[in-house]
Design brief:
Elements lengths: L29 H4 L4 H5 L4 H7 L1 H17 L2 H14 L12 H7 L7 H5 L11 H12 L1
Helix pairs in contact: 4-5, 5-6
């Protein structure tokens, strides 16, 4: 149980090429671990880069821990259940969805991000015909 406000500045996800080597051949396994990057092995990442990548996850964990300490064990379980239910998309693929419920649960309803003003339907590239989208959805169920 941690009440950490910001993510740690060091990156714990560094994987060496010895960890990604194939058991039989001893060379880097490209199919399972992607192409090998010597730059990532030699140069450590900037501390701010890891903090930005882990910011939302750390904030969510802090919110769950504070709810657990304040209200008891049921509160974070309820919050996680609500987040799982709300994050599932139940609308037709063509209809726009604002994900307002997810924003409220994560505390992003009070901030203005680039998704708020650049996520307009006019700029959307995945606009489809309603009939085609419903046929595709029906074919996926069958």
């Amino acid at each position: 149980m941690s009440l950490q406000l910001t993510p740690s500045s060091h990156n714990d996800t560094n994987v060496s090429t010895f960890d990604t080597s194939h058991n039989e051949f001893g060379v880097h396994d490209t199919l399972r671990h992607g192409t090998r990057s010597l730059k990532a092995e030699v140069l450590p990442g900037h501390p701010l880069e890891n903090r930005l990548q882990e910011w939302d996850q750390t904030r969510w964990e802090l919110k769950l821990n504070l709810a657990r300490q304040t209200y008891g064990l049921h509160a974070p379980i309820k919050m996680m259940m609500e987040h799982d239910l709300v994050s599932k998309r139940t609308r037709m693929p063509v209809l726009p969805s604002s994900n307002l419920h997810t924003d409220i649960l994560l505390g992003k309803d009070e901030t203005i991000d680039f998704e708020d003003f650049l996520n307009t339907p006019d700029m959307c590239t995945d606009m489809l015909d309603v009939h085609t989208a419903m046929e595709h959805k029906l074919n996926m169920k069958i």
